[in-house]
Fold each of these.
Amino acid sequence: MAYEAFSYYYDILMQDVPYHKWISKTKQYLPQGSTILDVGCGTGTISILLAKEGYHVTGIDLSEEMLSLAYEKTLTEGLGIHYVQQDMSRLEGFSDFDGAVIYVDSLNYLKNDREVFQTFRHLYESIKEGGILIFDVHSLFKVTEIFQDYLFADTNPDLTYIWHVCEGKYPYSIEHELTFFKREGDRYERFEETHYQRTFAIEEYVQWLEDIGFKILEISADFLDEAPTEESERIIVVAQK
């Protein structure tokens, strides 16, 4: 999905996200100096943080707008990160990486189980024997309970936005309806975007991974290093080739 105008305000919306928790999870399983595919890298925040920790990072994203911002941020930081525009479910041209990560529920942007399975299969082919795959997804509880008719609004001097989440067309899917008001002098310019996400049961993710050949190393929730409960919101899965 191309983020279009949304890409330019993504970092504002995500400024309170605890990115350090994803970095800590990476460091649990992949030593510094490892080569990593950061799939669904967005504006490059996690790619940049990983590079600063000594990882050799290649960022993958479908959105040209997001990658353009990632590249600009990387240049500003003086880092060397390779960015590639690709659909994660059609990933090609990569091999022998030490690991791959799909963070901040990027996997939930895939439309169906076939695309998720294809993504896992392509990543299996992209990492070396013994390589690590780490990803996180929304739990069923979060999609069916937390996100149902969720409404949030925020404002700052240059941007005001309204974020509404409603039930999607498919099982365990949601639609994010985003309305932005960008300040232009004494007036505001309004624009809207809709984003779709879908998740699946933990058991389904595990089955697809094992069918491909992955071994499950960890299933935890909410960065607590504990097994998921019925009210967990973010599921973290670590698998090994």
Amino acid sequence: MQNGQILEVTAGEGYLVELSPGLISDAPGLAGRLSALLGLTDPSVRAVIVTDSNVGPLYAGKVEAALEATRPGASAGVITIPAGEESKTPLELVRVLEAMASLRLTRKDAVIALGGGVVGDLAGLAAALYMRGIRCLQMPTSLLAMVDSSVGGKTAVDLEAGKNLMGVFSQPVGVLIDPEVLRTLPAREISCGWGEIIKYAGLDGDVLAAVRTELGPCRSGIAPLPSVGLIARSIDVKRRIVSEDEKESGARRLLNLGHTAGHAVETASRYALSHGASVAIGMHILTKALVKEGKLPRAMLEDLEELLRQAGLPSSIPPELLARADLDFSIDALLAVASHDKKSAGSGVNLVLPIAPGRAEVRKVSWEDFRAMLETGL
């Protein structure tokens, strides 16, 4: 791994995103960062670790030991949720809040979100709600969480109607990233993270060039681990946009490239599709539709398809899911999900549309036009 990097996010009170390879295994180094970020030299301050059933056995013990190394009693314990999107519910959120209350956490205490995107979203929301808000430190362990969900302060759980419909903007006090933990992830999770990295490639020419370089040698369709430099480049795109538009009233909408159609597909699959795979399909739907309408060159679609193939991501809904009688991927079903999406705007929807390699823009599209794009792009 390469040397670490530090990026500053100026949203909220401002915080740092620190990429430090090997940090979780460096007990003294981790203890020092936790103490500094959470103020653990104060004997009345504690931190609780929120993690999941996959990540907890691997890393929760190391983080808890680092907390205790700063000061005996600094750890308030570990709260573990079942791994998977199915845990990102109001019911599980309340269970975590009740566990936090049973530990007698106070407003001076903090939450450490140790895990992937589900843990980061749920633990971040729990921290924002508990006693009207306590601090949260994000420690993402999945590629998707590192490059995307841990940065920017979006916290949420899902409702039956759709993803992330119950949440608040609440910036963390910091983000600590140890890229070495990616080595324990299965190939599916690495590909999932590449879905968001390729999204950033659709927004930034430098990221696009870096993605082409790192995926270029990949012929097997099994995605490689991205370099620390590419992880940092991806975060930097989000950092710049979030610092300009914290609560998604303007430029931050660009970060939803591929997400409107992608969230609809993801929800319709009942989360059989990963988030990254769903975003990949969403980007492909829009690009394919625009190419068929003559608004984009075919080379852009071919380039996207090649990057998705190299990253081990689908460009369309897999046949085995389309064949399932319990899943409905009809246009009407996808539109019904999309109508509940946060990007819905009454008579239409705010779509992020690619306009050139490494460039996209937000346009309000009528529901009739969005239907036509789904029909053309699927």
Amino acid sequence: MKNIKKLEFHCELQAQSYQDLNPSEWELVQKALEARNRSHSPYSKFQVGAAVRLANQTIIQGANQENAAYPSGLCAERVALFAAGVQFPNMTFEALAVCVPDTSTNLPFPCGGCLQVMAEYEYKQQSGLELFLIYPAEELVFRAESTRHLMPFSFNESHLPE
């Protein structure tokens, strides 16, 4: 019998209240909360906001954008990341905050597509992207030091043939 290898994944995120955030973190959270107001979500009625802080301390906002042709929409995280990538192509992304509606009873975990995009930026910049997952119903923020904490087996260019 061949050697069987075991892969395990364990993720533990600590929550903290809004009051426990430092001023820079609170500013990023506020920008994500504010970005929800620019969501175009007439179909799901689920407004999501995101904000990415760059190494130069610029904050770029994003909000989900839906379309009647459902696959044509885009999540708030990717809107913010792609906008930041276009406006500041060589700048490191330090942190990304994501929030869901105040009435949401689900935690604000990004979808797999957004996690993959985050992982791509981490690979490109060779450093982690801190995540702030905002749960407004309880005024809590769940933190992850890197996308790898939520998606440890991401695909990147090192997997492609040369």
